[in-house]
Write a structure and sequence with these properties.
With 839 residues, the protein is of the alpha+beta class. The protein is 56% helix and 15% strand.
Length: 839
């Protein structure tokens, strides 16, 4: 029969015979594609919406002069507006105004307010000239809300919105809507905003439109010489790029997790195809003798894998689109950063991205099947037709040296630095270690089964027989175990990493939350703060033994990176470790130098080192400071700098505070003192919190954040167990004649079931032993390489022995159950029928 007519029929029969193994492989591939495509669509939609909003808001502006620390002298505006390069200039004041939360509405947090000179702004942003009542913008108590702000606040034109300025409430009337996309935004008169929020004479930015024929680059260089230290020139969409940069590490890590899921799916295809070609080895050899060429055989078998990949890829794209829509509808576009909070983004089907992820799924399936396909194609047909050749094939692959070489490559990759501030080599090390484990699995399985032969089995025949059969087929056993080993390793690694992170976070919170009460007016960038008179009233209250006021604000040190947090608080340079969780030893500043302590993110991102003298732009002048140490900061992944509050106030002239740590005196009730403090101000403007509540809230947020990780771990183990179940069932069904012979020589059904249960337990033991060791190695890469290079967090390793033991017991029990179910399938036929094919 010509091979041209033979191949399609063989392919149809082969795909039909995949059964549960093929379905499990498809689901694993779909899981990886869905995660990758879903995260990609959410982030792409958020970035596109943010950039669109920035372009719409910038209008015809070519350049933006922005304050580094949030404010600059408005005297800069006329100097820029009268420059010959500038055709139009529009001053602006940007504020993050706190909307006091009501008891029944905890969603209200911050509203971005943009104070504009409507006449100047309309020259650059024509959309502002179309306001329903533009003259209302000139009234200091009027504001216009965009649709997102209208929906978020639940108001209509004519309603009033209350915002917080310092420790007082400011009531503003909604005059209408402004057609601006993006996050919740309000537009009001710049003079009214300056007066309402205590920013007279201050600007946040100046939008510039250049004259025709003037180049952006040349104009930026010429105008830069006019700028004070606290201002710089950037493109109008720079903040949108910063938003993308802020969430990039989180997105890339989820994408890499999706690729690991795809790798597991590829392993399932590898296991499925390898076992399939082993069982069909004689059939494929017969096809070769009937005229099927080696190349046609490779195309035939890779085509089977490609079909699995295409089906899994299509299913994954559908699931990923649903995941993206679900995330945007429920949790929003926020991928770990406040830049996307409140953004109303939509993720329509993106055909190029869908095609790319479909191709990745197909590629994973084809690459997963490549090794067994090439092996069977290379085999001699005459040799393959001989009984018993299968295990001889596996015996040729039990050398440990290729696997050890992969281990060495993985270790070398883990030692390499980040690329573009992302841990690509760290993930390459994870893949190399996974490949090394799979390559070493036949050799390790043979060694472990040899050790199991020394167990005191007390003459239990089914156990002896089970072990003998596994030792004789160790190669096929390793193929069945490969997906489960990978799943166990990834789950164990994530469990160790998450457990270590949670333990380190608890210690960090215990170090930082040393006061009895914490007062807070708002977060970084809020218009809410404690002025000097409010601080004096708080400090004078009875029962207050000590109070420490703190100030936090954002510094934009690099236009291509998110702002860093400047935290002004009391720190003793001689014993900074008592206040901050330092990494390594601090150093005493040089005489006359102002000390600062930087987070690990600052050290990694900006390259600052202890002892180095750097300049901070404060108060429109550079402030030389010396790095006195590095500390752990698990909150601000963009970087943070701690400076003594007295040094900050002297340099900036800013004596306000937005936080306070309070220690109560002996005999004073903390709840009473907290109530008296908050009672000094209108309800909701100052919040009192206790360290125990803050710790519980932080850990609850941590657990919710990693809930998706736990779900992915469970899915990975479920897929691995399903793959083991399908492979084990296939192995059992292929040995029906062997079971028939055992029944003929005297074994009853119960003994056969016991033998299979023992085999399931032994297989689980091998998978757990290899998977847990591999998981320990992967956890070191995740903790010390991936997390450090992605988020710049160091943490102490903590192995959660209890959960891991429970996990191992569950996997072993499920494996034994799988073996028992497979045994029932094997014993459905009568013994005589089972051996009939051998007669």
């Amino acid at each position: 029969m010509p091979s041209l007519y033979l191949a399609p029929e063989v392919r149809r029969l082969a795909l039909a015979s995949q059964g549960w193994r093929g379905l499990v492989a498809v689901l694993a591939l779909a899981l990886g594609v869905a995660l990758g495509y879903g995260v990609h669509r959410v982030h792409s939609a958020a970035v596109a919406e943010t950039e669109g909003a920035a372009r719409r808001l910038a209008g015809q502006a070519d350049l933006v002069v922005r304050a580094v620390d949030g404010g600059m002298d408005e005297a800069l505006y006329p100097r820029l507006a009268t420059r010959p390069e500038v055709a139009a200039a529009s001053p602006a004041l940007e504020l993050e105004a706190k909307v006091p939360a009501k008891a029944d509405d905890r969603r209200r947090e911050r509203l971005r307010i943009l104070g504009l000179d409507i006449f100047r702004a309309s020259e650059l942003q024509p959309i502002l000239a179309a306001l329903p009542e533009p003259t209302d913008v000139l009234r200091p108590d009027r504001l216009f809300l965009n649709p997102a702000a209208m929906a978020w606040l639940g108001v209509r034109p004519g309603d009033r919105v209350t915002v917080q300025a310092g420790v007082r409430e400011v009531a503003l009337q909604v005059a209408g809507t402004v057609d601006l996309p993006g996050r919740p935004l309000a537009v009001m008169d710049i003079a009214g905003a300056q007066a309402a929020f205590g920013s007279l004479g201050r600007l946040s930015r100046i939008d510039l439109r250049l004259r025709e024929g003037v180049g952006q680059d040349q104009a930026a260089r010429d105008l830069a010489s006019l700028l004070p230290v606290g201002a710089r020139i950037e493109l109008p969409t720079a903040r949108a790029r910063q938003a993308a940069e802020f969430t990039r590490a989180y997105r890339v890590n989820l994408d890499m997790l999706a690729l690991v899921a795809l790798f597991t799916g590829g392993l399932l295809v590898f296991s499925s195809q390898a076992l399939a070609v082993v069982r069909r080895r004689r059939q494929l050899a017969l096809l070769r003798t009937l005229g099927l060429t080696r190349r046609e055989l490779v195309v035939l078998l890779l085509g089977e894998a490609a079909v699995l990949g295409v089906v899994g890829g299509i299913l994954g794209v559908v699931l990923g689109q649903g995941l993206a829509n679900l995330l945007l509808a429920t949790t929003g576009a926020d991928l770990g950063g406040a830049y996307f909070r409140g953004l109303n983004a939509h993720a329509a089907l993106h055909l190029p991205a869908a095609a790319a992820f479909l191709g990745l799924g197909t590629l994973a399936a084809v690459l997963g099947s490549l090794a067994p396909v090439l092996e069977v194609a290379k085999a001699s047909p005459a040799r393959a037709l001989r009984a018993g050749d299968e295990e001889e094939l596996f015996a040729r692959h039990r050398s440990p040296w290729p696997g050890l070489a992969l281990v060495a490559l993985g270790g070398a990759a883990a030692a390499l630095p980040a690329v573009a501030r992302l841990p690509f080599f760290g993930y390459a090390a994870i893949v190399l270690f996974l490949l090394a484990a799979i390559t070493l699995l036949p050799w390790v399985a043979a060694r472990l089964l040899d050790l199991a032969d020394r167990l005191p089995l007390n003459g239990f025949a089914p156990a002896h027989l089970a072990l003998a059969q596994l030792r004789a087929a160790a190669g096929q056993v390793s193929l069945a175990l490969a997906p489960l080993v990978a799943s166990v390793a990834v789950a164990a690694a994530m469990a160790i990493m998450v457990g270590s992170f949670r333990h380190s976070l608890e210690d960090w919170l215990d170090r930082l939350l040393s006061a009895d009460i914490y007062l807070r007016t708002g977060t970084i960038g809020d218009s809410a703060f404690l002025p000097a008179d409010a601080q004096a009233r708080l400090a004078a209250l009875a029962g207050v033994a000590r109070i420490e006021f703190r100030r936090s604000l954002n510094l934009s040190l690099d236009p291509e990176r998110p702002p860093v947090a400047l935290l002004a608080r009391r720190v003793d340079p001689r014993a900074a470790e008592r206040t901050l969780p330092l990494v390594g030893d601090g150093r005493q500043p040089d005489p006359g130098r102002i000390p600062v302590w930087i987070s690990e993110a600052m050290q990694d991102t900006y390259g600052w080192q202890p002892g180095q003298v750097v300049e901070l732009p404060l108060g429109n002048r550079p402030l030389p400071v010396q790095v006195a140490g590095v500390w752990r900061d698990y909150v601000r992944s963009g970087g943070s700098i701690v400076i003594n509050r007295d040094d900050y106030a002297a340099a900036s002239g800013d004596a306000a505070a937005n936080e306070a740590a309070v220690w109560v005196g002996p005999g004073a009730a903390e709840s009473r003192v907290a109530g008296e403090m908050t009672g000094l101000f209108p309800a909701g403007l100052v919040v009192a919190e206790f360290p125990g509540d803050l710790k519980r809230l932080s850990l609850a947020i941590f657990d919710r954040t990693f809930a998706a990780t736990y779900a992915l771990e469970a899915a990975a183990v479920a897929v691995g167990l399903a793959g083991l179940s399908a492979s084990f069932a296939a192995l059992v069904l292929a040995r029906r004649r062997e079971f028939g012979v055992l029944r003929h020589i005297g074994m009853d059904r119960r003994q056969v079931a016991a033998m299979l249960a023992c085999q399931g337990g032994l297989l689980a033991g091998v998978a757990l032993a290899v998977g847990l060791v591999l998981g320990g190695v992967l956890s070191l890469v995740l903790v010390h390489v991936v997390n450090r290079q992605s988020f710049h967090w160091s943490m102490d390793i903590l192995v959660p022995w209890g959960p891991l033991a429970l996990f191992a017991g569950s996997v072993a029990g499920l494996a034994v159950l799988t073996a028992a179910v497979s045994g029932r399938l094997a014993m459905r036929r009568e013994a005589a029928l089972a051996v009939r094919e051998d007669w």
